[in-house]
Amino acid sequence: MAFGAFTTTAAAPVEAAPRRKSRVALLLLLPGLAYLALFFLVPLVSLIITSLQTRVQGGELGEFEAGFNLAVYGQVIGNYGPHILRSFGYALAATIFALLFSYPLAYFLGVTLRRYPLLQALGLTLVIAPFFISFLLRTLAWKQILSDEGIVLGTLKSLSVIPPDAHVTGTAGAVIFGLAYNFIPFMTLPIYTSLERLDLRYVEAGGDLYASPARTFLSVTLPLSAPGVISGTLLTFIPAAGDYVNASNAFLGSPDTAMIGNAIESNFLTQQNYPVAASLSIILMASILVLVAVYVRRSGTEDLV
Amino acid sequence: MQSIARFFARYTIWIYAALAFTFILVPIVYTIIFSFNDSRRSNIEWRGFTLDKWIYLCDNQGVCQAFANSILVGVVATVLATTLGTMIAIALVRYRFRFRGATTLLLFLPMATPEVVLGAGLAAEFLTAGVPKSALTVILAHTMFCISFVVVTVRARVASLDPALEEAGRDLYASPSQVFVRVTFPLLLPGIMAAALLSFALSFDDFIITNFNSGPFTTFPKYLYTAASRGLPAEANVVASAVFFLAIVLVITAQVASAARRKRLAAQ
Asked: A36–B225: do the CB atoms touch at under 8 Å?
């Protein structure tokens, strides 16, 4: 399983006093676990039940009754195929861009700045700075910066670098850009954690053995930072695949860029077509679990668990 | 020429980092600058510098109310999630029990589930149970997704705690509850505070789950989403900028404090 990929930063638990007072353990665990059962597990079951409901004959909008309408899954995949493909395509592209952007930055923070703790702290604060300004506002800021007559495009157009009808917002590129930008901290921090602990003597050894810097990077540095790369890519890919803010019309997207999250939102909150929204959610969750399981197994990180 | 090339080769990573940090900061600086814009209905064109939006923030009742709602939800959800999560973290590190694997799985899954699924699932549950959407459903939802993050944060702190300190307490005839109050809890406090701050930040900025479970109740991110299509007022930038400055001050204070503590420990 993939637990390890998320918790590599946690220290190994100190094994203390085995089998001591298991009643105390139960009292400590029960309230929180019951809460998660009630507000995490029951909702998942509730999604499955809702997805199988059928429309009440002659009922109003949003009226459904219990049923076993498995056909909805086929219909949904048929109708929302493009949304599903876009979700995973955009999320994959955003993850790759975020990785390419973040790895050198994490290397700078974790290796180059190792001897300057104050600069390192400052750099880390800068990386997480976007967390402190609303997710929606920073996306809207990009929308305005990249708008047709905005600072970037307006200037380029007045210089005749690009044709006057060129636009960025509303395209797939803008959505991928927004997703990649918004998840940079999630990508940078885990890679930084891995690189910060990297023993530089291994890298020196590579040089001593006449490996080129590129060769040393590929066979020493990169494999040793793999746990961080795996956590970072998961922490970016999963929320990016389910995101619907970047791709929505009011932000960086257009109807042509709608992702699965947009379809779930509009079916649930606007059209009140709960079974379609619920089955899309189940499809999204199941696909992500399968992809994550395959990815983690492929990366050979079972020892992390 | 050659020396310029050598300079660039040597400092490539510094140049890259400078560019990367600038890029990261672009939308933040943009948002802060436009909080000082003397805007009329929409806040897209620059119309001149003013402090009015900062001073008369609550003239815009929508923004102010949404901000207050977000604080309320954030505080209540943080208290609930931090309490429940800390208890679980202590149990996970300190006790052996059956179903340990199932417990870790239950804690891990909410973090690996896309928010839209969490939001739609809760909304489906509330719909089936006939619970009307309100501040309460938003708080219930936020507490749920914060618990796992609290467990991960506090657990690292519990694990790094030296059991000898508690043993010393017991050796000095302290009762178990005294040991907890006088020794364990103070030692865990930095981890618990970090977890609480993380919870509050997650709750305050959450939009996706909130959107599914808020109904007529409006938090700050939900206000932004609803208002985005017709143009945001500069007051929204004021709230976001104020929160940003506050958070930066908190982070820097925490970092200076921990640096000072490390120095003190090293000196001893």
From this structure: no
Mean local confidence (pLDDT), B182-209:
92
pLDDT in tens, A193-235: 999 888 888 888 988 898 888 888 888 899 989 989 999 999 9
Q: Mean pLDDT across chain A, nearest whole number?
A: 87
Is the distance from CB of A182 to CB of A138 less than 8 angstroms? yes
Contact of B180 with chain A, judged by CB distance below 8 Å, is answered with: no
CB-CB under 8 Å, A9 with B156: yes
ipTM of the complex, rounded to two decimals: 0.89
**Closest CB to B114 among A108, A144, A285:** A285
- B61-164+195-229 CATH: 1.10.3720.10
Nearest to B201 by CA among B122, B254, B131: B254
User: So where are chain A's domains?
Assistant: 47-304
pLDDT band at B1 (very low <50, low <70, confident <90, very high): low
pLDDT at B67 over 70: yes
pLDDT over 70 (residue A110)? yes
> In what helix (H) or strand (E) does residue A64 lie, and over which residues does it extend?
strand A64-65
Give the pairing of strands A54-55 and A64-65: antiparallel
What backbone torsions phi and psi does residue B37 show, to the nearest 5 degrees? -80, 135
Domain boundaries along the sequence of chain B: 61-164+195-229
The answer for A 257-296 residues in CB contact with B (under 8 A) is 260-261, 264-265, 268-269, 274, 277-278, 281, 284-285, 288-289, 292
Residue to test with chain B: of A15, A30, A36, most B Cβ within 10 A: A36
- Per CB-CB distance under 8 Å, the chain B contacts of A25 are 91, 94-97
B contact residues 71-100, partner A, Cβ 8 Å cutoff: 84-85, 87-88, 90-97
Alpha helices, DSSP H, located in chain B? 2-33, 52-55, 61-94, 100-112, 115-129, 135-159, 163-171, 176-179, 185-205, 208-213, 220-228, 234-267
- For B49, phi and psi rounded to 5 degrees? -80, 135
Give the pLDDT of residue B107: 94
Question: Quick one: pLDDT at residue A181?
Answer: 97
Chain B contact for A88 (CB, 8 A cutoff) = no
Q: Which CATH class is domain A47-304?
A: mainly alpha
Q: For the whole model, what pTM was predicted? A: 0.88
